[in-house]
Amino acid sequence: xxxxEGDQGECLKADIISTVEFNHTGELxxxxxxxxxxxxxxxxxxxxxxxxxRGEYNVYSTFQSHEPExxxxxxxxxxxxxxxxxxxxxxxxxxxxxxxxxxxVKLWKVSERGRRPEGYNLKDDDGRIRDPSTIxxxxxxxxxxxxxxxxxxxxxxxxNAHTYHINSISVNSDYETxxxxxxxxxxxxxxxxxxxxxxxxxxxxxxxxxLTEVITAAEFHPNQCNTFVYSSSxxxxxxxxxxxxxxxxxxxxxFEEPEDPSNxxxxxxIISSISDVKFSHSGRYMMTRDYLTVKVWDLNMESRPxxxxxxxDYLRSKLCSLYExxxxxxxxxxxxxxxxxxxxxxxxxxxxxxxDRNTKRDVTLEASRENSKPRAILKPRKVCVGGKRRKDxxxxxxxxxxxxxxxxxxxxxxxxxxxxxxxxxxxxxxKVN
Length: 433
Hints:
Blueprint: E1 2-4, E2 17-22, E3 28-33, E4 37-43, E5 57-64, E6 69-71, E7 76-78, E8 84-87, E9 95-100, E10 105-118, E11 142-158, E12 166-171, E13 177-182, E14 185-190, E15 197-202, E16 215-220, E17 227-232, E18 237-241, E19 253-255, H1 268-272, E20 276-279, E21 285-289, E22 293-298, E23 307-310, H2 319-324, E24 334-336, E25 342-346, E26 351-356, E27 362-366, E28 382-384, E29 393-395, E30 407-410, E31 416-421, E32 424-429
Parallel strand pairs: 28-29
Antiparallel strand pairs: 1-32, 2-3, 3-4, 4-5, 6-7, 8-9, 9-10, 10-11, 12-13, 13-14, 14-15, 16-17, 17-18, 18-19, 20-21, 21-22, 22-23, 24-25, 25-26, 26-27, 30-31, 31-32
């Protein structure tokens, strides 16, 4: 494993990582931060004399994706923070990705330049226009090799379509369209058209005082281009079919787990809000994350989840203090491994949890500087509640709630994971020989 560190000591707010995403091959890994920057890491190619270096990721390109803005009509500052990054499947030598802040989605092209043209007729090699009267012969321009440059250029800017903050973007499997979701609406865009989008979901009530829920996440099905899901702050998931109607105000499936009355408390509604929803690679299942659990749903069964995994059940008794320090509103993401057999999600104290769906075994691991030496093996961690504490356990009362793993990503085919811990990015992989 290896670690990409932010500044030592006090962490700058702008350096806090806000999204992590592998591309479709896993060769590239992009992170976005609160300062509006995108950093792309590229995987090292295997060399004969250093076979163990395969799998190391090094910085490939860094660019400023979004700048802070000010909406003069509403007297609102628009943060530059990158909320989500989504890669487009690679069609040619260049890479394309979508990045979004609260209001504006941008399509970026990331390409390499290894040669430059020389021998212009009408201008000098340094770019100055030549006096036509001094040109006595015709030159044939040639391409000369130069140091490799990686350029990031904005190709499209999709703006002015969201009144509320964008929380999700998702590329459709037709690779022509994508959707962007905010608190109350979901818009469908064509990747070629920036000045027009189609509103496909609108849950805004006529009277805003009647508002009872907001959209928290949305995603397209991995291979059915007409199907998408969105989750709500009420703990429900709606599956919609765009073939049924232009405005998907009637869902075709509605997933909700009935609440156990014995567990009802003041915090029930807050902790049932879904912070992330992800289809499995196969498209048969979807996974949702709420504050305390991860649930796996079969798309053919709406009444209850297939599997429920407790992420940090020991926090159930601490909800009052977590409400007071606002941690109860943290939005944790969840990810599948390449074969849909293991799921991963984050917790506090820089812990992250993995659940094996076949063996039902689970493990808690920690992303910390102590573990960040190359080839260090991660030791499972255990949290104890009350009573006697064994020496390798950590007490629930000494957990650090300012350290949290909200964003993570899993390589599409291999056991390589990327975990964002505040301003540090950790990359762990299975033992390599």
